[in-house]
Amino acid sequence: MNAAISAEADLAAVEQVLAGDAAAFEGIVRRWQGPLINMAWRYSRDRGRAEEMAQEAFIRAWRGLAHWRREGSFSTWLFALAANVYRSELKRFPTETLPLDDAPEPSGPASQQRELEERGRYETVRRAVLALPPRYREPVVLFYFHEMDVAAAARTMGLPEGTLKARLSRARALLRQRFPYLEEMDDEHAGTEFSALKTGKEAAN
Amino acid sequence: MKPKRTIRTQQEPAGIDRTGRIEMEIDLILAAEEELMPSSGFLASVMERVQQEAAAPSPIPFPWKRAIPGILLAAGVFGWGIFELIHFGWPAPGSSTLNSLTLASPHLSPAVAASAESAGWVALALGASLLSWLLSRRLAGRGGLL
C-alpha cells in the first residue's frame, strides 16, 4: 500500500476509534500486523513470543490512541510504542541467548565457514545480535528492521541520529570481533544464498 | 531490503579493507531477514481483546471533590500535631518537658497517670478510626457503591 494512502487510512481509522467505533481499529491491525510481528521477531527470535509481544503492542496502542500527536506520522508513533513494549517485555522475561563470547569461535577461516554453515551461519550471526549489550542491541535490531534507515531507527528509539550511529558503530565492532572470518566465504556460494533469500523475501511480500 | 550483495560484487573497490568486507557481510546477513507472516488467528485475537477492552467499564475517577475536605482535615490535624510536638518539645527556660507534661495532672499518682495517658491514646485511635469509617461510608454511599 502506498505510504500516503496508508497514512490517510490510519488517520481516518484513529478518528473513528476515538469517536467510539472500536471495530475501526481492525484496519490498523491489518495494515501493521506484519511489521509489528517482524519487529518483535527481531527482538526475540521466537515466533510465538513475537506474536504475543505484537498483540500487547496493539493493545497499548489501542489504549493510547488519544495520546498520538498528529504532528508525527502514525507509523513512527506506533513503532516507538512497540519498541517500548518489546523492551520492557524482554526485560521482564529475557530471551534465552548465548553470551556473545560463547558464539562459535573457530580456529581458522575454513573451520569457521564449515562450522557456521553447520549451525546455520546466518542464524548464528542474527542470534549474536541478541547477545550484544542492550544499549547496542536495539540500535542494530531497529536499523536493519528499518532497512538500514538511521533516521527511522533513531526516531523509533527517541535518540539523536548521532548517538544511534555511534552505538551502531560500536555494535558492528563487537560483531566484527566475534566473527573475524565472516568475509572469507565463497562469493559464488554467498551470491546464491543471497539470491535465494532475496527471492524468498520478494515472494513473501 | 537493499541488495547488499549486489553492492559488494558490483561496486566494491579493489582496495576495500577487511573490516569493510566483514561489515558488508554483517549488513547482508542482518538485512536479508526472512519475513514472518502473521498467523491466521492473529487479527481476530487482537480484535477480541480490543472488543473486551472497549466493553469494559471505564475506570472510576478518583473523587477529588469529596476527598478534599478529608485531606484538608487530615492535613490540619497533622499540622496541629506538629505544632503541639514543637510546643511541648521546646522546654521553657528553667523547666523540663517532663515537668510541663506532668503538670497537667498533678493530683494523680504516676501509675494512674500512665494508665490514663494510655487509655487516652487508645480512645483517640478508636475515635479516629470511627470517624474514618463513617466518612468512607458516607462517601461510598453518595457514590452509589453501597
Record the SSE blueprint.
The complex is a heterodimer of chains A (205) and B (146).
Chain A: H1 3-18, H2 25-44, H3 47-64, H4 74-92, H5 109-119, H6 121-130, H7 134-145, H8 150-157, H9 161-178, H10 187-204
Helix pairs in contact in A: 1-2, 2-3, 2-4, 2-7, 3-4, 4-8, 5-6, 7-8, 7-9, 8-9
Chain B: H1 4-11, H2 18-31, H3 42-55, H4 64-89, H5 97-102, H6 110-142
What is the count of DSSP helices of chain A, taking H or I runs of 4+ residues? 10
Q: Which oligomeric form is depicted?
A: heterodimer
Q: Helicity of chain B, in percent?
A: 55-70%
Greatest contact between two chains = A-B, 49 and 37 residues
Instruction: Report on the biggest sheet of chain A.
Output: none
Mean pLDDT across all residues of chain A, rounded? Answer: 81
Radius of gyration of chain A: 19 Å
Which strand-content bin applies to the residues of chain A?
under 5%
Mean pLDDT of chain B: 77
Structural class of the helix and strand makeup of chain B?
mainly alpha
- The parts of chain B where pLDDT drops under 50 for at least 5 residues are 1-12
Count of β-strands of chain B: 0
Span between termini of chain A: 11 Å
Please describe what this structure looks like.
The complex is a heterodimer of chains A (205) and B (146). Chain A is mostly helical and 205 residues long. Chain A has helices at 3-18, 25-44, 47-64, 74-92, 109-119, 121-130, 134-145, 150-157, 161-178, 187-204. Chain A folds into two domains: 3-92, Orthogonal Bundle (Rna Polymerase Sigma Factor, Chain: A), CATH 1.10.1740; 100-204, no CATH class. The termini of chain A are close together. Chain B is mostly helical and 146 residues long. Chain B contains six helices and no strands. Chain B has helices at 4-11, 18-31, 42-55, 64-89, 97-102, 110-142. Chain B is elongated. The A-B interface holds A 22-23, 25-26, 29-30, 33-34, 37-38, 41-42, 47, 50-51, 54-55, 58-59, 62-63, 121-122, 125-126, 129, 140, 144, 147-148, 172, 175-176, 179-180, 182-183, 185, 187, 190-191, 194-195, 197-198, 200-201, 204-205 and B 1-5, 9, 18-19, 21-39, 42-43, 45-47, 49-51, 53-54.
